[in-house]
Design brief:
The chain is 22% helix and 18% strand. With 108 residues, it is α+β, with helices and mostly antiparallel strands. It has a single domain, classed as Glutaredoxin (3-Layer(aba) Sandwich), CATH 3.40.30.10. The protein has a four-stranded mixed β-sheet, with helices on one face.
Length: 108
């Protein structure tokens, strides 16, 4: 297995209904993760990009959250429709998607 150039973590944390904190699971994180896996397969970037689902990444109210390493770029409020832009701009061209960047309030 080749060492990836980029590693994407997608929060798939779910909390029970009525929990005082929201979670990415309540905000369609599963379909966001599925879309990342679909693009990875479609673009055949297995030697450059690794996609991993993860537990809580921190800023639950801003989810679904996506974290990209090695840069440490955190995206918030990511929808299925945003995934292509993340692949096109950030993963393939090293330009973070500005409109999705997590607020410095949550991620400095």
């Amino acid at each position: 297995m080749a060492k990836p150039e980029k590693h994407i973590f997608i929060c798939t944390q779910s909390r029970p209904s009525g929990h005082p904190r929201s979670s990415c699971g309540q905000k369609n994180c599963g379909e966001v993760a599925d879309e990342f896996y679909w693009h990875l397969q479609e673009r055949q970037l297995f030697d450059k990009v690794r996609v991993t689902t993860a537990g809580c990444l921190g800023p639950c109210s801003e989810g679904p959250s996506v974290l990209v390493y090695p840069e440490g770029v955190m995206y918030g409020g990511v929808s299925k429709e945003d995934v292509a832009a993340i692949f096109d701009q950030h993963l393939e061209n090293d330009r973070p998607v500005e409109r999705l960047l997590m607020s410095s309030e949550f991620w400095g």
